[in-house]
Amino acid sequence: MPTKGTSSFGKRRNKTHTLCRRCGSKAYHLQKSTCGKCGYPAKRKRKYNWSAKAKRRNTTGTGRMRHLKVVYRRFNSTFICHNLIFLLHIIPKGKRTVAGC
Question: Which InterPro entries did the record assign (predicted)?
Answer without folding.
Answer: Ribosomal_eL37, Ribosomal_eL37/eL43, Ribosomal_eL37_CS, Ribosomal_zn-bd
